[in-house]
Amino acid sequence: MAKIRVLIVDDAVVIRKLLSEALASDPDIEIAGIAANGRIALAKLADLAPDIVTLDVEMPEMDGLATLTQIRKLQPKLPVVMFSTLTEAGAGTTLEALARGASDYATKPSNTGSMDKARQAVIDELVPRIKALCARKLAAPAPPRSPDRPATGPTSFVPRADAARPAASGERLLRARASYLLAIGCSTGGPNALDCVLGGLPAELGVPVVIVQHMPPMFTRLLAERLDTKCPLRVHEAQAGMRLEPNHVYIAPGDWHMLVKREGTGLSIALDQSAPENSCRPAVDVLFRSVAQVCGATTLAVVLTGMGRDGTRGCEQIHAAGGRILAQDEATSVVWGMPGFVAQSGVAEAILPLQRVPVEITRILAQSRAAGVRKG
What we know:
By secondary structure, the chain is of the alpha/beta class. It has helices at 13-24, 38-48, 64-74, 88-99, 115-133, 171-179, 190-199, 219-228, 284-294, 312-320, 338-345, 357-375, and strands at 4-9, 29-35, 52-56, 80-84, 104-107, 181-186, 209-213, 234-237, 248-251, 257-263, 266-272, 299-303, 324-328, 350-352. The chain has two domains: 4-133, 3-Layer(aba) Sandwich (Rossmann fold), CATH 3.40.50; 161-375, Rossmann fold (3-Layer(aba) Sandwich), CATH 3.40.50. Helix content is 38%, strand content 19%. It is elongated, with a radius of gyration of 21 Å.
């Protein structure tokens, strides 16, 4: 089996050594080369022919953003993982790098106390990302597909008979409208996918939106601020006790699970730091599980690009409660892990190209509101 060839680009000798040792310890990875800055990396790129690049954000002569821009001109599909410090400046630059085409990011270990702990932190965080982005190199099989749900379709929403909503009138109808919720889960490739989905939704969507994007603290706040300037809806990093309002988006803060709770006839946000699920906090499963319990059949869940299988169990519970589920297709996902496993489970009613997702969300919610008005 061919190994994944990694080009390490970082100006710090200690970090280059740390990355080289940590990555080379995995039998599926080899170090194609190292470079102390972006100019050197670009000069080596053609000769080394790496499968993936780890790219420091802050470097002399040519920084990570400038280097990424040039790499994308030379090799648009070469996976690039940004390696940044867990600071506000590092987080902001990393989000800009993702917007410019970086495939993923990892944070540099800090305050670990020893090189052994720092090396293990790199192995735990960076190696899975490299393998997920280079799965074809390892000839890793994609998640098996349900025979009646191919990755490329269907491209239209097919309502299930068991998802039919009971007739509602008066106070019951108002409660159902207040409870209707759009819940989204994503990870690797998620920031750009969210930009596409939220940017394609109308300002008067009519329902609240709750999101788990796997990111550390500070990154989620900056992501919310960035999306708020780019999409028609108002976007917030969620805080405990926030009441959910239509046409507002709430992103789970890094290192906190987010849950939806009933509060009178409305809904509100709860946060906790219970144990990670699927090695994640926040976890999509935690959010989706709470949504299934509180909103049941008045739920529309969407799983976008991401590594791992977080969200599958939550989708199964939403499905059992009569909710509706969409998943992003393989062709437009950076990593078809999370949506792939949802597709495999058979609970997704449609597997869609990313560009189709906001169209279907808008149609489904408009259809549901119209049905609610008729029943009222």
